[in-house]
Design a protein that fits this description.
Number of helices: 16
Strand content: 25-35%
Strand order of the largest sheet: 3-2-4-9-6-7
Oligomer: single chain
Bound molecules: beta-D-mannopyranose
Radius of gyration: 28 Å
Structural class: alpha+beta
Largest sheet: 6 strands, antiparallel
Shape: globular
Length: about 800
């Protein structure tokens, strides 16, 4: 009878050239254990990153014992299965080297039967310093890959030589921590019974029926006969199979009539079905694998059209306007990141009407739970392979290593309905320089990865690079007429926000604008005497070259200059929201030419000034609240032209909509100076310029510095409201608004009424360390109106009224330059 012995749990971790010896946790990372045991301080505090580089420069040995009985040690295969080793490691059992590892993205399976014995056995895994290995390989590299320019001397310049999370070497939003450890599950599988390694499937949608062809990949230590059973919803099939020693494929097709389909968020339900494959070899030797799958027809449509070539996803025959965010690793130390945080971040994305998330190529293939949550929340996944912003050495050893990685990851993730696209890398093509680099690009992304993806997962498209114009297309990656695009002229190029209005890429898979994290977040890592954005520690928590000066220069274009530490964070977040709102509303209005906007970036890896809409501790920035408005299924928006304003209504609703668009010209004091209601009818997924208001007629003698348009659209059950101001914020004639609030608790829910006497744009409610979200925030509060808000805690316990009273702070623009 076969048996699985988990080797997770406590291991001894020994520094080879030093005295540190601790008991660490597996799965885990050395650095994480050192933090947990107080041997090193918070690595994110101050400039501690510099003092902790030594951790990754050591050789560390993981060691533990395990017991085997006579039967296990002498009764057939003993497979050591390592789901992930980070990264360069020698694995030994009872002093015999059983395998070496140098790719954190593959699964290793070594048969160690010759080295085990009944009784106590010892396993050791020695992790070598990643940097040494990268540097050695770089020295002996036969390719001219160019020399990366690095802003920080301690960053890992040669990261591309190792199949390790690329941003572990440092990024323009993150620190350098070259982690080491057994970062995923580890176990022994004893006995000769077959084991299911992967279960993948392909779907064929025909009318209302779906054929699901399931492939089980089964490892048989010896020739065996077994029953392989496939079960999907109420269908099942059993195959009596003769498995030969080694890897075997067993295939079955199950057909479902009129099953409920899986839809992206906002387009329908996310129906999931249970799929189980089991392999019964008799004598209680049954191995099984269960998955939740979703049935959907998913296409990437790239067809010639009037503009050039389309680029959009179509799910169950409905075109998807993709709205979402880029995802980076949510902690420098993945092992201490709990599933709850991932769930919070992805739920937050869903709540902001995201229907797509891009797993960016400088991070990791995320854990299973990540993709399950994407399935459950209807977030399509644009999945990069883990290559970013560098040229990679395409020698045979490297290509073989990558092949194993790609095969493993595609098979592991195939069953998730959310996965929409396999993409070769992030910005590798964009940085093309010389012919040699193009050859290595071609060898790696076209000749090696592409055929593996096509063979393993024929139902999904492979896209060679983000951005690019297509596989084997080496044209201009900034082409606005085809392909996906990364649009960085505003942030990196210093152009004004209005620049977004001049471009409409077919699908924008990256664009972003930074802000500072809140003082609540930053005060935990910045020493008290350095709480100013230009201090040494603060600048250390800004990794984008001219980051702070870029934020400041754009603040001076739009707002007045805040003088307090809190005000700086607040105004920078209002600025960020304004920037991304400008781009997203414009691109939504540009559909169907543009069919996607994926903001850079959702989350942070540590507390930092960055493009994220959610801070390192899960706190929403103003931008994330704004997304709930500008990504909503129905959008009312405005465009300022030289002598008029256009009012638009844009719908991602797949039904005909009827209703009205209303605008009110209002004074800052709350008086309605003019109003008009326009009937609007629009087709499914429609997009219309509903009216055009000449400025002279509209404003008359009213002062544009104290007047604004309040625009509301109400069609079927959908609503959208928007504000249009006629001058940049800094020129507005704001008066002291007298914002008042009434906070109470009703049936365990914290509720607030907010009122104001004068226009109070960007009214921002902070809540200290009480984690959760207000039903709206960053509100353009209008004179005379009372709005009611509720607080949704993160987790199940709501803060008390007293706690919220104590924690609450209200920021208003007026107090940042007008007082
Ligand atoms: C991109 C990304 C990242 C980077 C971001 C901000 O292009 O792909 O490499 O962090 O811009 O500069």
């Amino acid at each position: 009878m076969s048996k699985t012995i988990s080797l997770n749990g406590p291991w001894t971790i020994q520094q080879i050239d030093g005295d540190i010896q601790i008991t660490g946790e597996v799965p885990g990372l050395v650095h994480h254990d050192l933090i947990a045991q107080g041997i090193v301080e918070n690595p994110f505090h101050g400039m501690n990153e510099l003092d902790q580089q030594w951790v990754g420069e050591q050789t560390w040995e993981y060691k533990r014992t395990f017991e085997l009985d006579e039967k296990q040690a002498g009764g057939g295969a003993v497979v050591l299965n390592c789901d992930g080793l980070d990264t360069v490691a020698d694995v030994s059992v009872n002093g015999h080297l059983v395998g070496t590892a140098d790719n954190m993205f593959v699964r290793h399976r070594w048969d160690v039967r010759e080295w085990v014995r009944p009784g106590t056995n010892v396993i050791t895994i020695v992790f070598h310093p990643a940097r040494e290995v990268m540097d050695e390989r770089a020295e002996s590299c036969e390719f001219d890959l160019g020399t990366p320019r690095l802003p920080y001397p301690w960053f890992a310049r040669e990261r591309r030589f190792l199949r390790k999370c690329q941003c572990h070497g440092g990024w323009d939003w993150g620190p350098c921590f070259l982690t080491q450890g057994i970062h995923r599950d580890i176990r022994l599988e004893c006995g000769d019974a077959p084991r299911i390694l992967y279960a993948t499937h392909q779907q064929t949608h025909d009318g209302n029926g779906v054929d699901v062809t399931i492939k089980a990949l089964i490892d048989a230590p010896i020739d065996t006969e077994c029953d392989v059973t496939f079960t999907l919803a109420d269908q099942s099939a059993t195959r009596r199979e003769r498995l030969a020693a080694g890897e075997n494929e067993v295939v079955a097709t199950l057909s479902l009539d009129e099953p409920k389909l899986w839809w992206p968020n906002g387009m329908g339900e996310q129906h999931l079905l249970d799929l189980t494959v089991s392999c019964d070899a008799g004598e209680d030797d049954v191995d099984s694998m269960s998955q939740r799958i979703g049935l959907r027809k998913l296409e990437l449509v790239t067809e010639r059209d009037d503009v050039g070539e389309s680029f959009f996803f179509r799910v169950n025959d409905v075109p998807v306007y993709a709205k979402g965010n880029n995802w980076i690793p949510a902690d420098s130390f993945d092992s201490r990141l709990d599933d709850e945080k991932i769930e919070w971040l992805l739920t937050s994305a869903k709540r902001a009407h995201n229907n797509i998330v891009r797993v960016w190529g400088g991070g990791i293939y995320e854990r299973d739970r990540f993709y399950e949550l994407c399935d459950e929340h209807g977030l399509l996944v644009w999945q990069d392979f883990m290559f970013a912003c560098a040229h990679y050495p395409a020698n045979q050893e490297f290509l073989d290593n990558v092949s194993a990685e790609v095969r493993h990851q595609v098979r592991r993730l195939n069953h998730h309905p959310s996965i929409a696209l396999w993409c070769g890398n992030n910005e590798v093509l964009q940085s093309k320089l010389n012919p040699m680099q193009l050859v290595s690009f071609d060898d790696l992304f076209i000749k090696t990865i592409m055929p593996i993806v096509e063979a393993e997962d024929p139902g999904r498209r492979y896209w060679a690079s983000s951005p690019c114009n297509g596989n084997r297309d080496y044209g201009d990656v900034h082409d606005q007429t085809r392909g996906d695009a990364h649009y960085w002229k505003v942030w990196h190029g210093g152009k004004p926000f209005s620049n977004y209005l001049t471009v409409a890429p077919r699908f924008c898979s990256e664009f972003g604008f930074q802000s500072f994290s809140s003082t609540e977040t930053m005060n935990k890592v910045i020493p008290i005497e350095e709480r100013n954005i230009a201090s040494e520690s603060y600048e250390f928590h800004q990794r984008s070259g001219a980051g702070n000066t870029t934020i400041l220069s754009h603040i001076s274009r739009h707002f007045r200059i805040p003088t307090s530490h809190e005000g700086m964070a607040y105004v920078s977040q209002a600025l960020q929201a304004l920037s991304i709102k400008t781009a997203c509303e414009h691109w939504r209005r540009s559909k169907p030419r543009n069919m996607g906007a994926i903001i850079w970036q959702l989350n942070d890896i540590w507390p930092v000034a960055s493009w994220a809409s959610i801070e390192a501790d899960g706190r929403w920035k103003l931008l994330h609240y704004a997304e709930r408005h500008f990504f909503a299924p129905l959008l009312a928006s405005t465009v300022a032209k030289d002598d008029h304003v256009e009012l638009w209504v844009t719908s991602d609703v797949n039904e005909e909509l009827n209703g009205e668009l209303r605008y009110d010209l209002k004074s800052f004091a709350g008086e309605i100076l003019k109003t008009e209601t326009i009937p609007v009818s629009m087709p499914p997924l429609g997009n219309v310029a509903a009216t055009r208001l000449p400025l002279d007629d509209l404003l008359g003698a009213n002062d544009p510095r104290q007047t604004y348009l309040y625009v509301t659209a109400r069609l079927n059950a959908f609503e959208s409201a928007n504000i249009h101001t006629f001058v940049p914020g800094k020129m507005m004639k704001l008066t002291k608004p007298d914002v008042t609030h009434d906070l109470r608790e009703e049936n365990g829910v914290l509720t607030m009424e907010l009122t104001t006497r004068g226009f109070a744009p960007f009214t921002w409610l902070r809540h200290g360390d009480l984690m959760g979200t207000w039903s709206d925030n960053g509100i353009h509060l209008q004179a005379g109106e009372t709005i009611e808000l509720t607080f949704a805690p993160r987790g199940t316990t709501s803060p008390t009224l007293a706690q919220m009273r104590e924690a609450l702070t209200i920021d208003i623009l007026y107090e940042n330059g007008w007082e």
